[in-house]
Amino acid sequence: MTRPKKSKETTLAVRAVRTEQADKAVYAFFVAGADLLKIAEISRVHRDGEGSLQGFQRKGIKSHVQAITEFLDRGPVLFPNAIILAISPRARFTQTRGEKPDGDVRSCQAGTLRIPLPSDGSKAAWIVDGQQRSIALSQARDKSFPVPVVAFVSEELSVHREQFILVNKAKPLDPRLINELLPEVDAAFPRDLSSRKVPSELVNRLQTSADSPFQGLIKRPSDDSPTAVVIDSALIKAIRNSISSALGSLAPYKASGDCPADVDAMYRALVAYWSAVRSVFPEAWGRPPTESRLMHSAGIEAMSLLMDRIMSRAAPGIDLQLHASEALRRIAPHCRWTSGRWQDLQRDWNEIQNVGRDIKLLSGHLARLDHIHAFAKVA
User: Fold this and answer.
1) Total Cβ atoms within 10 A of residue 100
2) Is the pLDDT of residue 154 over 70?
3) Which residues contact 270 (CB under 8 A, 6 or more apart)?
4) Of 22, 110, 155, 354, which sits most exposed with the smallest number of CB within 10 A?
5) How many angstroms separate the CA atoms of 337 and 287, rounded?
């Protein structure tokens, strides 16, 4: 291969491997995370003064960037997610001379890639996938953190957009599958995943433990049991809300400073409350959502909000299941989980749906019933 002519233009030199796809050169290499935004720009989608569409990248999401930065700043982390770049033909590749190793499949060539760093501030590369990660890497404390990059040669915006769409059109990983996998992985996660790990672990225990009223009743991606009737995501959402809310009954047990979350205490509270629910509403327990709105996602979320009210007023050392059972028995005559009509709501039992409006309506009604009858007992 002919050596490139010497140029006075400043470049960033990286060891790379080169191949070809669709008559375009494609490179794979590593670069310090802090250098990504020095060589590549983020082409934001916008319209120019004439109304023509320019760029293709969405606006940055600050919370996402911050979560990745915090993850990177925790210390030694494994972060092998490749950034995809489109790169200018002005980048020059020099193949390494030498003997080919035995067994070489000849799919690529090793060498040095020199990426221009124009003095006028323009860039010779464009980020196609990984803009949030690139911003986070530029803000992380370790400026030398090595990041894998795959770059294809093209200055055509239409090609950049095509690849952007192809990379992002695939269906994201099912959140329920992520939730089920989280308890099985002992590793530090970004903040958005960390907040899901404890609720996922609790739902896993509720599904598998012999003392749990939910044993065998929770639908998960890995389970295909005909007895499972409660969607795992409904329970995970309810538990997560209880932990994060200042008035949640599980909030006192969440992690604080150097003190880890007391998952065992959370589990005991959940088992006590939902065991009480099972004993007070036996005719509605364990049935499909089409036959029981107690097992429906709307019922699970509404009853979980009621759990926060009931369990938060339990005195220290009290029998939690007995406390919950007494509170639930007072409102049981007014509940319509499997038949009849919620008179104050003007809804038949099976008209309650898993939508925000219905959940708010049902949870508010249960809270009023609890307040009225708990107050009446005190009076």
Assistant:
1) 9
2) yes
3) 202, 206, 239, 250
4) 22
5) 11
